């Protein structure tokens, strides 16, 4: 019929549906739990030679390190690792441990001819999880940061990424519900891969208060959320009523366990990556549009009590747009195709971030510590993928 368009191919995930589907990217976690601890670190390790990187900070209470180095106007062109950490501003010390390990490997911004005459630039961002295990002074340091980056190196390329209560998501909470680490990927028709990892720790909620549906559930690709135990996008009304009561009771119990009332500062951190070759300015745009993914999956977001931060990485293994017949520069077609290809990556970046947030909620498990009671979404609304009974 005239005017009708043929539907394009259905979107598909990468083999792991994870940040590590971007070839060369490795992920490692380190955490401490028990005896008052509930915190951790996640390291995203670039391939040898580093990656183009950018950052966009939208929250009103960020805790960051070396983010100014990623400004496209500044000197450092590539970085070797990004660290996401718990512990609020104290936890930024974890980046020093990752930097020390990189120095030992001779990786970093080269300042001399010697094999270790490098200065590793390790951008980092922290989320607020202080006291959630019961001990206020339990927060990541350099040793935990080093452990995370070593684990990333050991994991190898294309490895699985542990989700839920892992790494920087160990002590994460979102709207009183347990948060955590989530990850997702998509392979575009061009062959480029775009993927994200999120440490979800938000002042806002991940679910619609009227229905209990996860805001980001509509972004599902290939039944991925059902495979993690999401029975249906909209829970039964009776289940929702009971879940609201239980979540309210858990919030009250968490407040009761606090020795002194603590202002709840939160942050969702994300890394979005692609194997498409982006300039530093294009990577900056990707970091910015990826925040749309947070806004679709968390409401409200980017508040004064959030430190929401997104890093964007490009390994540059695939050209953004080709010029096989040599005519592009003469016709201007190359500029057009580059814009089209970049737009596809920008749109995908927002979508994979939303999906990563949902995976974080579905992979989380109820956590009960002296510092609080934090029920998981599936404990409230569904059957966990591992088949464990509801509380």
Secondary-structure topology with pairs:
Elements: E1 26-34, E2 37-45, E3 52-57, E4 64-65, E5 81-85, H1 94-104, E6 109-110, E7 118-119, E8 124-126, H2 142-155, E9 173-174, E10 177-178, E11 180-187, E12 193-200, H3 237-257, E13 269-276, H4 280-297, E14 309-318, H5 328-331, H6 333-363, E15 367-369, E16 372-374, H7 377-381
Parallel strand pairs: 5-8, 13-14
Antiparallel strand pairs: 1-2, 2-5, 3-14, 4-8, 6-7, 9-10, 11-12, 12-13, 15-16
Helix pairs in contact: 1-2, 4-6
Key features of this structure:
single chain, 391 residues, alpha+beta, five-stranded mixed beta sheet, 16 strands, globular
Textual characterization of the structure:
It is a single chain. The chain is an alpha+beta fold and 391 residues long. 27% of the residues lie in helices and 21% in strands. It contains seven helices and 16 strands. A five-stranded mixed β-sheet has the order 1-2-5-8-4. A five-stranded mixed β-sheet has the order 3-14-13-12-11.
Number of strands: 16
Approximately what portion of the residues adopt beta-strand conformation? 15-25%
**Which strand order does the major sheet show?**
1-2-5-8-4
Q: Number of DSSP helices?
A: 7
Shape: globular
- The first-to-last residue Cα distance is 54 Å
Estimate the mean pLDDT confidence: 91
The secondary-structure class comes to: alpha+beta
Largest sheet: 5 strands, mixed
Query: Quaternary status of these chains?
Result: single chain
Q: Which sequence of SSEs, written as H and E, runs from N to C? A: EEEEEHEEEHEEEEHEHEHHEEH
Low-confidence stretches: 1-6, 323-328, 384-391
Helical amount: 25-40%
Report the radius of gyration as a whole number of Å: 21 Å
């Amino acid at each position: 019929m005239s005017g009708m368009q043929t539907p394009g191919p259905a979107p598909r995930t990468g083999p792991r549906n994870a940040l590590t589907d971007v070839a060369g990217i490795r992920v490692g976690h380190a955490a401490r739990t028990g005896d008052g601890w509930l915190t951790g670190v996640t390291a995203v390790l670039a391939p040898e030679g580093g990656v183009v990187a950018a950052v966009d900070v939208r929250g009103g209470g960020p805790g960051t390190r070396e983010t100014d180095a990623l400004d496209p106007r500044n000197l450092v062109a590539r970085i070797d690792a990004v660290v996401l950490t718990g512990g609020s501003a104290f936890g930024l010390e974890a980046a020093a441990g990752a930097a020390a390990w990189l120095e030992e490997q001779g990786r970093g911004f080269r300042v001399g001819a010697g094999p270790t005459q490098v200065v590793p630039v390790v951008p980092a961002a922290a989320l607020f999880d202080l006291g959630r295990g019961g001990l206020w002074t339990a927060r990541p340091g350099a040793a935990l940061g080093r452990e995370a980056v070593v684990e990333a190196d050991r994991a190898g390329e294309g490895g699985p990424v542990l989700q839920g209560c892992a790494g920087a998501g160990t002590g994460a909470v979102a709207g009183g519900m347990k948060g955590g680490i989530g990850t997702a990927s998509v392979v575009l028709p061009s062959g480029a891969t775009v993927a994200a990892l999120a440490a979800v720790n938000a002042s806002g909620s991940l679910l619609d208060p009227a229905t209990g549906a996860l805001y980001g559930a509509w972004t599902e690709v290939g039944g991925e959320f059902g495979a993690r135990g999401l029975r249906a996008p909209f829970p039964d009304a009776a289940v929702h009523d009971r879940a609201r009561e239980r979540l309210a009771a858990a919030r009250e119990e968490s407040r009761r366990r606090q020795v002194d009332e603590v202002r709840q500062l939160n942050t969702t951190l994300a890394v979005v990556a692609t194997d498409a070759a982006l300039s530093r300015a294009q990577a900056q745009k990707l970091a910015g549009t990826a925040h749309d993914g947070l806004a679709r999956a968390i409401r409200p977001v980017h508040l004064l009590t959030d430190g929401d931060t997104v890093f964007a990485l490009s390994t540059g293994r695939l050209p953004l747009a080709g010029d096989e017949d040599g005519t592009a520069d003469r016709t201007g077609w190359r500029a057009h195709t580059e814009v089209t290809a970049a737009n596809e990556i920008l749109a995908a970046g927002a979508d994979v971030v939303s999906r990563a947030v949902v995976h974080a909620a579905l992979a989380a498990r109820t956590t009960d510590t002296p510092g609080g009671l934090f029920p998981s979404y599936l404990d409230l609304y569904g059957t966990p993928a591992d088949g464990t009974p509801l509380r």
